Amino acid sequence: MNIKNDVITIWKSRTKYSHADMSEDFFDVGGDSLGSIYLLVDINNFFGIELEPDDFFTSPTLGNLINLIEQMLK
User: Fold this and answer.
1) pTM of the entire structure?
2) In 4-32, which positions are buried (b, 16+ CB within 10 angstroms) versus exposed (e)?
3) Could you count the other beta carbons within 10 Å of the beta carbon of residue 51?
4) For residues 59 and 63, what is the distance between their CA atoms, to the nearest angstrom?
5) Does residue 31 come out as left (phi exceeding 0), alpha (psi in the -120 to 50 range) or beta?
6) What is the CA radius of gyration of the chain?
7) Domains and CATH numbers, the chain
8) pLDDT reported for residue 19
9) Where are the alpha helices (DSSP H) in the chain?
10) Cβ–Cβ < 8 Å for 6, 46
């Protein structure tokens, strides 16, 4: 499993953004609050974790999201 690549794939599917920058903010690349919930549902289902919206909303960047998931999977 390559966490980074898997998260990038899910991120792109929810933002419709063709590239992925670790510092990009979900809401700055076309994401909205409903889309962020769908993003988290996709991630939680894919990785079998329980990432909460508050965890993501604190810093809604791709890099932060990857770090949160890696920490939860340790």
Assistant:
1) 0.90
2) eeebbebbeebbebeebeeebebeebebe
3) 17
4) 9
5) beta
6) 11
7) 3-72 (1.10.1200.10)
8) 80
9) 3-15, 33-47, 53-58, 62-72
10) yes
pLDDT of residue 17: 75
Q: Is residue 8 within 8 Å of 62, Cβ to Cβ? A: yes
pLDDT, position 35:
93
58: exposed, middle or buried (C-beta count within 10 Å: 0-12, 13-18, 19+)?
A: exposed
How far apart CA 30 and CA 48 sit, in angstroms, is 26
Which amino acid, 66?
I
Q: List the pLDDT tens digit at each of the 74 positions of the chain.
A: 799 999 999 999 998 777 888 999 999 988 899 999 999 999 999 999 999 999 999 989 999 999 999 999 99
**Residues for the chain: how many in total?**
74
